[in-house]
Specification:
This protein is of the alpha/beta class and 253 residues long. 38% of the residues lie in helices and 16% in strands. The chain has a seven-stranded mixed β-sheet with strand order 1-3-2-4-5-6-7, sandwiched between helices. Strand 6, helix 7 and strand 7 form a beta-alpha-beta unit. Helix 2 packs across helix 9 and helix 3 packs across helix 4.
Amino acid sequence: MTNALTARQLWIHRFHAAPRDTAPTLVCFPHAGGSASYFRPLAGALGPVAEVLSVQYPGRQDRLSEEPITSIPRLADEILTVLESLPRRRLVLFGHSMGACVAFEVARRIERGSSLELLGLVASGRTAPPTLRDTKVRHMDDDGVIAEIRRLNGTDDRLLLDDDIIRMIMPAIRGDYLAVESYRYEPGPALRSPISVLVGDQDPQVSVTEAEEWRDQTEGGFTLRTFPGGHFYLAEQKAQVARALTEDLARFS
């Protein structure tokens, strides 16, 4: 087994068989504290139109024994190396919340010089990169972190009542919040590829006006869609999100 294959197995999860060779690849980047399995339902819905891959950050699920990576740029560097080992080269990147930051930095790296072809970026539930919003969750105690997660409705409340599960997932959550809250946008050229932005109309983390500011990060086409719901509108609007991504995949390709 080669090092590249081992890395792919760690970083990339595939939940369904890939469609025809000409279909694009959609790479999904989870939110803070999230895991690759969050995108399993979406992978099922989009399976006929794209190869759907989900990124697994260190420190959770099958990578629980690994230390979380607490830097967005380092995450982007690691993920780019893995993506460059994929047999399919035509990618659309889709990131939710923290994942939008990671996807954006991977997109920049692809366009700076890579064998990959970036078809487009879909950013969900996140302010545009130049807009800093440090909620200081990384400085909170465990109770404060749990309260923040409950406020955003990102994790089943039943899981947050189990002390063993809390102890198990807290290092990854804290590592992710350190990464995203310490992230600083470095000015640079706008992406040549188009950007599509998805946001919940009641999201406490990003307003529709702030989501619109992603427009400045592309020289290609720009689309903004709003959905009923809060930060994790995706869980409530699965069919609508799948439809929007299907439209984006067709337009980008």
